[in-house]
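[Meeting: bench + compute handoff]

Bench side (C.D.) handed over the final construct sequence. Compute side (W.E.) agreed to return the predicted structure before the next meeting so the bench team could plan truncations. Sequence as handed over:
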Amino acid sequence: MARCCHEHVAGSIADRVAFWGALHQRLGKLSNRFSHETHGKLIGQIHARIPMPTVDEQRQLQKENAEADEQLWSTLHDMNASTAADHKELVATAQQTIADSGQLQRMRQQRLTRPGNGSPRSKEARTCKAGSASR
């Protein structure tokens, strides 16, 4: 069973960093159960099967993680910039539609208020017209 874990953990630097971090925490909790000498022997035996990550390996992992983070943030930036551009286009379209509808409304109003276009007239104008038609 430990062999399966060994093969799995020894696969990548990130796995070994996580393994050794968890191991040190676990051994710290158990430190009252064995001596420092035994602790050192355990670390040595485990290191023989699952090597501790070197400083260079840890730096390499940090660099890879930083590059992955940069790629993620760059992608998010591009997506948000694209969304912002789409929203600006939507605002411009909405403003143009509002302006066009206002112009259309003014044109309708002008057409309805012109005399002789069947426009709404005052009560007096309707009465005069009705009176002249009955003569």
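W.E. noted at the follow-up: The longest helix spans residues 55-113. C.D. will use this when planning the next construct.
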